[in-house]
Amino acid sequence: MSLVTVIGRGHSGTRAMSHTLSASGVFMGEPLNKSGDLLPPDDMYAACRVFAERVGWKGDLEWDWSNTHSGAISAEFSMLVDRYLASLSASTAEHKGWKIPETTLVFPWIARLFPEAKYIFWIRNPRDSIIGRHLTDDLSDFGIPYPATDDLRLRRAMSWKYQYDLVRATARPKHWIEVRFEDFVLRQEETLARLEEFLGFPLARIPVNPEAVGRWRTDTETNYFDFFEPAMHEYGYEMPSPEGAPANADPVAERGDPS
Predict the structure, then answer these.
(1) What's the predicted TM-score (pTM) here?
(2) What is the pLDDT of residues 119-171, one digit of tens each?
(3) Any residues with CB less than 8 A from the CB of 36 and at least 6 apart, and which?
(4) Cβ atoms of residues 139 and 157 within 8 Å
(5) Position 246 pLDDT exceeds 80
(6) How many CB atoms lie within 10 A of CB 202?
(7) Nearest 10 degrees: Cα torsion 231, 237, 238, 239
(8) pLDDT of residue 243
(9) Does domain 2-255 have CATH number 1.10.10.410?
(10) d(CA 83, CA 20)
(11) Which of 124, 131, 134, 122 lies closest to 216, judged by CA?
C-alpha cells in the first residue's frame, strides 16, 4: 500500500494532479468536489487552527515554525486529521491519497505523522496563483498572524509567501518531488514520466489547457510583489522587466520550449 498527498497553495493547479491520480486508480478519499478535494473539509480546517497555535510571528513577513518541527504533535491535531482521512483508513485500495490545499498550512506535522508517504509539491507562477480567490487568502481565518491589509491581491500574495516559506522551512520527507504546473501542462509526457518513476505506477493522461499558463499577462491588476523574487528565480519564472525595457513575450521557462 502506498500513500500520496499533494502539497501546494490553492490556485496552484493541484486539482490537475488530484484528477490525474484518481484517473490512475488512486483512491483519493470520498466524497470529492470538482477540484479533487477530499470532503468534508471541516476537520482539516480545525487542524490548521490547532497547528497555528505553535506558529510564531516575528513581524512583517517572517514567521517561526521551530515549535512545529520538534516536540509532541497535538493530540487534538492527530485526532482531527484521522477523522478527516477516515475514508482512506477504511479503504483497502493498493494506492491511496488525498488533496486539499489546506494540507500545506500544516505540512510540518503531516510530514511527521506520515513519514513514509509520497509528497508531491506543486508549484505555479505566483503571479497566476494570486489572480483567483481562495479560502486561504486570509491567513487569520486559520489563526495565522500576518500584517493586516485591505488590499486583496497583497493579502493573497502574503498567503502565498507564508505557504512557500513554511514548506521551505520544513525538512524534506523521505519521498519528495517538486512539479511545476506549467511543466505539467506544456510538457505533460516528460512530467508524467518523472511522476511515474517517483510513484512507481503508471499514470493516466488527462486533458490540459495551455491557456492556463501565463494568465497574468492579460491580468489588469497587480500580480507581482517584490517578495516573490526568490521563488521566481528558484523555479525559473520570468521576472518583470526593468521599467522601460521590453518584456520577453515568450519565455522559455513558462512556454515550455525544450530548445
Answers:
(1) 0.92
(2) 999 999 999 999 999 999 999 999 999 999 999 999 999 999 999 999 999 99
(3) 14, 15, 17, 18, 19, 22, 28, 99
(4) no
(5) no
(6) 10
(7) 0
(8) 60
(9) no
(10) 25
(11) 131
**Residue 11: which of 119, 104, 121, 124 has the closest Cα?**
124
Place of cell 479560502: 135
Please give the Cα distance from 121 to 110 (Å, whole number). 13
SS in 3 state form for 141-169? HHCCCCCCCCCHHHHHHHHHHHHHHHHHC
The domain limits of the chain are 2-255
User: Residue 33 and residue 14: Cα distance in Å, rounded?
Assistant: 13
In which residue are the cell numbers 490548521 written? 48
Those residues whose C-beta lies under 8 Å from the C-beta of residue 200, and which sit 6 or more positions away, are: 2
Grid cell at residue 226: 517584490
